[in-house]
Amino acid sequence: MAKVQVAQINVPEGWIDFGIGQPHVDILPLEQLAEAATHRFEQGDRNILQYGMQQGSANFRNSLARFLSAQYEAAVDPDHLFITAGISQALDQICALHTRPGDTVFVEEPSYFLALRIFADHGLKVISTPIDENGLILGALEEKLVKHKPVFIYTIPVFHNPAGVTLSTNRREKLVRLAENHGFLIIADEVYQMLAYTAAPPPPMTYFDNSARVLSLGSFSKILAPGLRLGWMQAKPSLLEPFIASGYLESGGGLNPFVSGIVNSMIELGLQEDYLNFLRKTYHKRMLTLSAALRQQIPALKFAEPHGGYFIWSFLPEGTDSQTLLAEANKHQVSFQPGIKFSSARGLCNYLRFCFAFYGEADLLEGVERLSRVIQ
Ligand SMILES: Cc1ncc(COP(=O)(O)O)c(C=O)c1O
After folding, report:
1. Is 219 touching ligand 1 by the criterion CB < 6 Å?
2. pLDDT digits (tens, 9 = 90+) for 282-309
3. Are 272 and 67 in contact (CB under 8 A)?
4. pLDDT beyond 70 at 247
5. Which helix (H) or strand (E) holds 214?
6. Are 309 and 161 in contact (CB under 8 A)?
7. How far is the CA of 66 from the centre of ligand 1 (A)?
8. Average pLDDT over residues 42-55
9. Structural contact between residues 239 and 217, judged by C-beta atoms closer than 8 angstroms
10. Ligand 1 pocket test: which of 221, 233, 283 has the largest number of ligand atoms within 8 Å of its C-beta?
11. Can you tell me the distance from the alpha carbon of 153 to that of 144, in angstroms, rounded to the nearest whole number?
12. Hey, which residues does 129 pair with through a beta bridge?
């Protein structure tokens, strides 16, 4: 097993790190992207080398809209799409355009810890609000809205990172109503929307929005390759306008026109759909393997099997400190993410997050075996 060293991760040789929330390079679609690039280059369209249209090329947005409509089983209007350089870039630009240092934003407890870093870069005051097995608990959110006036709430409403849960349809409708009544935006990070293994989730949050309150963020990072740095926002056109008219795009043009051209061919040739089907099958199997091994070998760990996404979110009895366990686990060359990392309230100390997307089944089993020597 070679040493793994890329952005965010640096795993010593021989270790198994369940903390890595990325695809493994071994399954990234190099051959398919080579075929798509050749297809695009053979068309002789030099426009993909030019500064791009601010919203993203109409050609690419049309292809993307067709692809997403089929995946969501709901119509996607290409005029409601704005091309981004991935969700991280979109979050940064949302903060730049909608907030000023000192403003308040709401996040879920737990939440994706690297989004918390972006909010810190912008000097935002972060207040967390709890979730359960159906996503955001709206009663708790409403109580916080009496005291605070957030610019936006950042939510991961589908196959949550780290919690794996999905916001129910009923709560989606109510959340939008709360946003209307209290005047905040909903930033929905839907990076795992299409990685559904059992039942299809509700459509993205923007479908519940009649009053221009919701920005739905999508990405090719988890359905194609993170190195592409390509994603999209789906929202009412009035919400997209500030992004399209920003100084950043006025100077640099639309985001990633060259990569968009190649991904356009991935979609046109049906390669994106095939690869996504392959990922769903592969990750579903890995999830079942990890879940069965954890249940069998470490019965003290409690968790609900996720219906999609990348993660199993588990907990040990109250009072257990998963950071202490992590130090012990590391002595056995196995690692995971401790719950406290996802908490903006420095809590969730008895939680552990496992990613099942990175390793193949043999490594998943070996990792659980090692961990079972630490947790009994
Ligand atoms: C919830 C969540 N949002 C965003 C990202 C990053 O997305 P992107 O690569 O599109 O910036 C990740 C990646 O792990 C994630 O888990």
Report:
1. yes
2. 999 999 999 999 999 999 999 999 999 9
3. yes
4. yes
5. strand 214-219
6. yes
7. 23
8. 95
9. no
10. 221
11. 12
12. 108
Q: Quick check: 140 and 91 in contact, CB under 8 A?
A: no
The values of phi and psi at residue 39, to 5°, are -55, -45
DSSP run (H or E) holding 185: strand 185-189
Look up tokens 């954890």; give the residue: 294
Confidence bin at 11 (pLDDT 50/70/90): confident
Nearest CA to ligand 1 atom 4: 87
Choosing from 189, 193, 313, 356 the residue with most ligand 1 atoms within 8 A of its CB, the one to mutate for a pocket test is 189
Question: Residue 360 gets which letter from DSSP?
Answer: -
156 CA: nearest ligand 1 atom: 1
Beta-bridge partners for 233? 82, 217
Helix (H, G, I), strand (E, B) or coil at 4: strand
Give the helix ranges, DSSP H, for the chain: 30-42, 58-72, 87-98, 113-121, 138-147, 169-182, 237-244, 247-252, 257-268, 271-297, 322-331, 361-372
Is 110 close to ligand 1, i.e. is its CB under 6 Å away? Answer: no
Q: Are 333 and 303 in contact (CB under 8 A)?
A: no
Is the confidence at residue 208, as pLDDT, over 60?
Answer: yes
- Please give the pLDDT value at position 10: 77
Strands 4-6 vs 9-11: parallel, antiparallel or unpaired: antiparallel
* Side chain identity, residue 373: R
Give the pTM.
Answer: 0.96
Are 146 and 181 contacting, i.e. CB atoms less than 8 angstroms apart? no
Q: How confident is the model at residue 1 (pLDDT cuts 50, 70, 90)?
A: low
Q: What is the pLDDT of residue 6?
A: 65
Task: List Cα–Cα distances, 194 to 67, 94, 219, 275, 374, in angstroms.
Answer: 11, 23, 10, 12, 35
Evaluate the omega torsion of the peptide bond into residue 101 and state whether it is cis, within 30 degrees of 0: no
| Atom number, ligand 1, closest to the C-alpha of residue 22 | 14
Question: DSSP secondary-structure letter at 12?
Answer: P
Report the SS3 class of residue 29.
coil
Dist. CA 233 → ligand 1 center (Å): 13
Asked if residue 215 lies in contact with residue 209, where contact means CB atoms within 8 angstroms, the answer is no
Specify the 3-state DSSP secondary structure of 200.
coil
Write out the two tokens for 169: 């349809």
Alpha carbon separation from 308 to 130, 171, 203, 231 (Å, rounded): 21, 19, 14, 19
* Residue 121 pLDDT greater than 70, yes or no: yes
State residue 306 phi and psi, 5-degree precision: -75, 155
